[in-house]
Amino acid sequence: MKITSKGQVTIPLEFRMRYGLLPETDVEFIPGKQSLRLMKSPRNNLRGTRIVERMRGRGDGRLSTDEIMRLTRGED
Length: 76
Prior knowledge:
The structure is a single chain. By secondary structure, the chain is an alpha+beta fold. It has one domain (1-55). Helix content is 37%, strand content 13%. It has 3 helices and 2 strands. It has a two-stranded antiparallel sheet.
């Protein structure tokens, strides 16, 4: 495997699938004495938490879960 002139390298599909390295995944490089480690950034997990916190308390709770599911499924 070679690094391109732009500093890019292709991560083999097997590793991308095994470690959940999807497009737009934030990664970090961790330098060692004679190595460089690539790790998923812990910042990836924060996005979902921020979204949930922003939405928390916004619903008025008028519908039950069953009623919401019927609406979602298009049932009368």
